[in-house]
C-alpha cells in the first residue's frame, strides 16, 4: 500500500509543469520507512498469482451473473462454478462479488416501504 502511494505521487521525469503532489522517491521512502530497493523491486514485479486468480474468477462470476440477468446471488454462482468443475471457496466468491458490486440491489420490500411516510409522535 505504501509502494502504491509512492508510485502515484512520485515525481516523473521530465518534470511536470504543475508539480502538485509529486515528491522524490527517496524522500517518500524515508518518510514511509521503506527501502528504495524494495520499492523498485515491487515496481518491477508483475501481478501476484492471487491477483491473477482473482481477475480470472471475477470474469467468470460476471459472465454467470450477466447470463442470468442479475438474478443469481453468491450461493447460486458458487454452485454454478462448482458444477463447471472450478474449485472455489464460498467466501472467495462472496468477496469478489462484493468487489464487483454484483447482486447489490435493493430488496423489493425496501423499494416499497409502506412505513416511509409515517411520523413518530413523542410525548413531551
Explained architecture:
The protein is an all-alpha fold and 124 residues long. Helix content is 56%, strand content 0%. It is built from seven helices and no strands. The chain has helices spanning 2-9, 25-32, 36-44, 49-67, 74-83, 90-100, 108-111. 10% of the residues are buried. The mean pLDDT is 82.
How do the helices and strands line up, and which of them pair or pack?
Elements: H1 2-9, H2 25-32, H3 36-44, H4 49-67, H5 74-83, H6 90-100, H7 108-111
Helix pairs in contact: 1-2, 4-6, 5-6
Radius of gyration: 24 Å
| 3D shape | flat
Helix vs. strand class: mainly alpha
**Number of E-type strands:** 0
What order do the SSEs take from the amino end to the carboxyl end, as H and E? HHHHHHH
**What is the subunit organization of this protein?**
single chain
Mean pLDDT: 82
Helix content: 55-70%
Give the termini separation: 53 Å
Q: Tally the helices: what do you get?
A: 7
In this structure, how is the largest beta sheet organized? none
Low-confidence stretches: none
Into which percentage range does the β-strand content fall? under 5%
Amino acid at each position: 500500500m505504501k509502494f502504491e502511494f509512492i508510485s502515484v505521487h512520485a515525481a516523473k521525469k521530465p518534470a511536470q509543469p504543475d508539480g502538485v503532489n509529486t515528491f522524490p522517491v527517496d524522500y517518500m521512502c524515508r518518510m514511509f520507512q521503506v527501502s528504495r530497493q524494495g520499492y523498485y523491486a515491487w515496481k518491477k514485479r508483475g501481478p501476484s498469482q492471487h491477483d491473477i486468480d482473482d481477475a480470472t474468477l471475477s470474469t467468470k462470476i460476471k459472465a454467470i451473473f450477466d447470463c442470468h440477468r442479475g438474478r443469481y446471488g453468491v450461493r447460486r454462482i458458487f454452485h454454478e462454478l462448482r458444477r463447471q468443475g472450478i474449485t472455489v471457496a464460498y467466501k472467495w466468491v462472496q468477496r469478489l462479488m462484493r468487489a464487483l458490486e454484483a447482486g447489490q440491489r435493493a430488496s423489493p420490500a425496501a423499494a416499497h416501504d409502506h412505513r416511509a411516510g409515517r411520523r413518530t409522535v413523542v410525548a413531551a
